Amino acid sequence: MTRKSLLIAAVALFLGASMAAPIALPAYADDMQGQTKQDFIDALAPKTRGLTLSNQGTQGTQGTEETSAAPQKDMRIQFEFGSAKLTGSAKAVLNELGAALQSDQLAAYQFSLVGHTDAVGSDAANLKLSEARAASVKDYLIDQFHVDAARLEASGVGESDLADPGDPNNGVNRRVVITNIGS
Fold this sequence. Notes:
It contains five helices and six strands. Strands 3-6-4-5 form a four-stranded mixed sheet. β1 and β2 (about 60-65) form a beta hairpin. The chain has helices at about 5-20, 30, 35-45, 90-100, 125-145; strands at about 50-55, 60-65, 70-75, 110-115, 150-155, 175-180.
């Protein structure tokens, strides 16, 4: 074969391979959608509905704050299949969460991390996996961001609280929910 033939074959092979398997962009941008430091602060910082006034007879007017339900956020955390090992995109999301937990707006609060799975596998295996995944998130935040362990609770519920009950095997069910449980 001549050099020209080899060059043509190489170009054809390259073009054919690139058409057959388009270059996949990393999932990083999609994984980060709605999961930046500020997104976590906005979702997890306690909110008040406003100031309510009540008349207490001769005692005068007293102000009380009403707080809404505990702030929480579903996180799209990717794990290796059937394991609690964090992927690169999971670490990118947790880096944003870790920075948010160190912020002035969230530094005084404690949080619950609850792992969830889809319905693939047995109930017992999914419960164990969801617990391990929540613990993996907690450990990462402690190790990488020095978040005080007393500020984080980790637990799992397996497949008992599906995000999409109509499609129990859907990946959207595999998640970790973080909830602000107060100070």
